[in-house]
Amino acid sequence: MKASQKKAASLLMIGTLLVAAGCSDRLESDRSSSPDESPEKAIAPMTITFASGDNNPLWDDMQSEVGKFITEKTGISIKAQFPGNNTDTDMFALMVASNEYPDMVSAKVSVGKLKDAGALIDLTPLIDAHAPNIKKLYGEYMKRLRWSNDDHGIYVLPTAPVNQTYFKAGSGFELQHAVLKELGYPQIKTVKDFEHALKTYYNKHKTTADGQPIIPLSLNGGEWQFLISVTNPAVAATGASDDGEFYIDPDTYEAKLHYLRPEEKEYFRWLNHMHDIGLLDPESFVQKVGQYRAKIASGRVLGLIDADWDFAGEVAALKKEGKIDQTYAHFPVTLNESFKRHDFQSTGYLAGIGISITKSAKDPVRVIQFLDYLASDEGQILINWGIEGKHYKVENGKRVIPEDISKMKVKDNWNFRKTTGVDMYRFGPSYGDGVKDPTGNYYTPVFPEQIEKEYTQADRETLAAYKVKSYKDLWPSEKQFPVKPWGSAWTINMETGSEANVIFQQCQAIVKKRITQAILSKPEQFDAIWDDFMKELEKAGVEKLNEAYTKLVKDRVKLWNE
Amino acid sequence: MKPLTEGTLEAGSTLKRNRFWFKAYQQRYLYMMSLPFVIWIFIFSYVPIWGWITAFQNYKPKDSIFDQKWVGFDNFIELFQDERFYIVLRNTLAMSTMGLLVGFTVPVIFALLLNEMRGQFFKRSVQTISYLPHFVSWVVVAGLVYKMLSTDGGAVNQLLMWLNIIDQPIQFMAKGNLFWGIVTASDLWKEMGWSSIIFLAAMAGIDPELYEASTVDGAGRFRKMWHITLPGIRTTFMVLFILSIGHLISIGFEKQFLLGNPLVADYSEVFDLYALKYGIQMSRYSYGTAIGIVNSVVSILLVFIANGIYKRVTKETVI
């Protein structure tokens, strides 16, 4: 009796093991036999898996109104994954390490890594055979889609909108309308003006109307947005154009880490001064993004130096609560009068970052057809405007957004985008703002008349006071600057794991540490810390990095302009 | 034993072998039952070691493992020449040693005190409440810690100000020299109750007669704790202690990653974070593997040293 019990137990154990092994085998074979051979391919339902490097908290796997409409039209539904709490680089690094990919990726800066690992397929034959709309959309820029001088294949469909005209200024320095109103709309051109405005207002008000302590200036410096809120503004405020972590000499194409520019030292000295006189939030470099955003949403941060997309949700929340005076106006602030902000200098068409199809895609033809549909006139209008009769109407041949929808869009942007799905599916190729379709309407609802409609009362008062139609008019126009032949350097990727790449990573760590220290130190220690910073960069091999990057920039110029 | 001594040496050894097979046959079901686990361990713990050869290559995921470029010890040389490696090693060992010391003494004391409780209901509730934080994710804990230590209305600063101990809020999270302490303290808060469970279980297993006997001999509470309870959990304690020494170097990076910021980077970077940043994140799989190998070697060394010391002191061994 006892022996048979033992026997049964051991057999059961082994049996379980075998079944487990058998199960995984079956799954494997199921997957390999799945490609469906049905003749009605074009509308047969299919799910495309998609990994996006940009978080989208609104994503709902195409359950919104527009999403369902797209699924109806194409049979495609998309299952997306996002980095969540991780960084996008981690997500893709792990993907490469495990050699398992979704059908589609939007890999951002990791695209080189995926390409090196052989994960991306060349889209040239697919585009030629199945994607007339994509071809039409990119038009003369098709050349810029080529990978490199050695490999002319197309691995990425860039998502940067084609022929975009910028009507909105989302960068620069931000001040609450309340501050401007109280001070009688003073001139805000230099960091001194900005500082003065904050100081004057803060001296009079230490708390908000609902009794919370006011923070004059807070930076989003605790996480990766350090680049956006702390270091990029140093470049912009000292009259250089945005080339990521580098400065590119416009004549010689020599690249160098932009911190090596002496002008920037003075910008950081000003931040140091702001900290010294107590205007800079001491938590600027330790706070998590959530903390930073919570402060903005409470309406107690007077000034910001950030890009509008970094706090758009919080501004929407402020509007929803009716605190429109606590939302922000944008100003092209520079270190002093001698600099001009290059924010709107044209880069030409900025290929580089976009969507790719991986070698794991079961049916790449369906995927490209889907992207082609989104790039068609019908698809573009659908993702930008919504469904006709529901989210927009056509009156006398012009697309208009009805009053109630427009109101929701301004006051409750979050819910508007979530329920309608407008603006949510722009992960493929797209036309830029200001481009007109064959009917003479704009492809996107971002054009001067529409923007003006969406201004709040506070925006209108501020703009009227400065005698401009939009914040962008405060900036130097793009016509003042030549087109940059290398596009923008932040779209140029270094070879992953190369020596330059390692040096770059080390320099980034040094930059984060030293810049923060320099800003938070006593003013008399600033120079010493800055000198150490420079020495450390040198020791890490910044010269070699500059050389390697210069070569990349020159290669890019050749690839795009030959 | 008898037939063995009687036979010749040769016969003895065949007999011995026979006995082995006989015993093996007798215990065949036990062997069969353990087989799945042996296979499991083999597959998950030994097969992956095969990947170590990538540390001596310049591994690119595109090609098969046989087409890679061999680079000898280059990755190790680079690792040992990187000064950051030593900072990282220091941080890892410092934080894990602190965590180990505090993380063992406090739960033992806590378990001792709890063990002395009379009321079952109270004891159970305290125990449950104390181990609940174990189930809270580090992301949430890091958020809490940041909020508590914030200068902008953080509870700790407000308390210290109210007690007039300080007159300016302290920037806890911006001070490198406080970072190790903050990590240890938050780890303690999170894990104290959980780690004490096993000690409580060991204490429950102590023979009550021992306590009765010592009561008769006139021992008080503290004497009983010292002479009966503590020796009673000694073996459990030592096994756990030596095992966690094996994990000293692989403390993970969650807490350091979530609690760290650029200002305290010199104190917050740990081994796994280093491997992530300079290995996987940059697709330098070979370098990452080299870091992993060093990690394992150091761990094994630490375990043997700890066990050696224990053996010398107590004449017992756990491994």
From TrEMBL, chain A:
Keywords: Signal
Keyword Magnesium carried by entry: no
InterPro entries: Bact_solute-bd_prot1, SBP
Domain of life: Bacteria
Keyword Signal: yes
Signal sequence annotation: 1-21
Name the record gives this protein: Putative aldouronate transport system substrate-binding protein
TrEMBL record, chain B:
Domain ABC transmembrane type-1: 89-306
Entries under Pfam families matching the protein: BPD_transp_1
Source domain of life: Bacteria
Key words of the record: Membrane, Transmembrane, Transmembrane helix, Transport
Location of the protein in the cell: Cell membrane; Membrane
TM regions (residue ranges): 29-53, 93-114, 232-253, 285-310
Chief location: membrane
Name of the featured protein: Putative aldouronate transport system permease protein
Organism, scientific name: Paenibacillus methanolicus
